[in-house]
Amino acid sequence: MGIDRGMSEKPHNNGNFPWRAAGMVSAMGINAAVCLTGGYWLGDWLSGKFGGSPLAWKMGGLLAGLAVAAWSIVLLVQKVLGDTDE
Prior knowledge:
- This protein is an all-alpha fold.
- It contains two helices and no strands.
- Helices cover 76% and strands 0% of the residues.
């Protein structure tokens, strides 16, 4: 008569959810800052090594850093949300 939820379902422990959310948001911000700073420095180094427009190299580095930051934040969120489902 009841809903069969299966034998493998575990009860959720949401008592630490605010701390997990705060930690995840902090990690996302730190991650974005590190990736963007690294991209800027990489663009600056590449402009000195290969010449050309320093602004173009730095903007390219920032865009690359932004792409890496977005990708790693997606992986971080998937990991955190995947852990709460188990």
